[in-house]
Design brief:
mainly alpha, 66 residues
């Protein structure tokens, strides 16, 4: 069953409530993405911890030797 914008289903109070909830969730998701991006910039996400960097180097050397 497809729902078209002009159908009676879309104009019901239940679908209106659902649309409002969906819009609110989309706004919250956008805000969360913005906050995560700001936190990543703050803590320097994307950089490897020195211990992780050492582990990666060892793995690469091992893989290359085999």
């Amino acid at each position: 069953m497809s729902v078209r914008p002009d159908s009676a289903v879309m104009s019901s109070p239940e679908s209106s409530d659902l649309a409002d909830r969906l819009a609110r969730v989309e706004r919250e998701l956008k805000e969360l993405r913005t906050r995560v991006a700001a936190l990543e910039r703050l803590v320097g996400a994307g950089e490897l911890h020195p211990a992780d960097s050492t582990t990666v180097e060892k793995k690469v050397r091992y893989d290359w030797q085999t």
